[in-house]
Amino acid sequence: MYPYRMSNVMIGYLNLATLLASLPIIGAGLWLARGSSSSSSTTCSSILQTPLLAVGFAALLVSLAGFVGACFHVAWALRLYLAAVALLVAFLLGLTAFGFAVTAGGGGAQVYGRPYREYRVTDYSAWLQKRMQDDRYWRPALACVVGSKACPKIQNWTPMDYLQHDLTPIQSGCCKPPTACQYSGGMPVGAQDEDCYRWNNAPDILCYRCDSCRAGVMEQVRQDWHKIFVLDVAVLAALVCICSCGCCAFRNARRSRSQYPYGVAMMGW
Length: 269
Prior knowledge:
The protein is mainly α. Helix content is about 65%, strand content about 5%. Strands 1-2 form a two-stranded antiparallel ribbon. A two-stranded antiparallel ribbon has the order 3-4.
């Protein structure tokens, strides 16, 4: 193998790895899209599916362009590849910064003597609050919460179960009244949080109309976004590494055109 062709081999294999890595990213996005309308979904984070699918398909296309360009010394494919990588890096940087900004705060407060947390709408960013107040976003999210069967799983719990077992954000916010609520004969007593009055023991009502339910969904979105950010950072690091090798591969592709004008310069030995 000629030394100057080493970068072509490297970028070819790196892009093959990125291509394969893009498949689970796309799969995760499709799973979120399917889960958001499925009765088995427990995340109800459909707001994640668009950026996740965009990242996955963009990484797939960029990898294909870079792989073809590096393997076959196609200069125009490498030009397209380098431009696409630059755009994808900029997109990922912007998405990561935006995501951290809109998911700042939250996390809930630990309930004294209980293993679970409770959540408040005001602890989350104004952007998330606005989305949850908009019926276009809230109605599908609420339908997902109801369809997820999260509440029936704890419907027959005893008071002792609440002292011993943790709850998901959705279960904490949508399936029970706030722990601080006080009831007498099934009715709230005195001046309390409005969610205490919105609670109803009927299985199709529960606390679905409570602000705590919206907060629970926002906390679930926040947690899922943070998982996606880890993936974004990993893909971003790989793209930056591949981009640096791509510059070398582009120079080699131009050099091969002058040295091998009549043959096809394949990646290899």
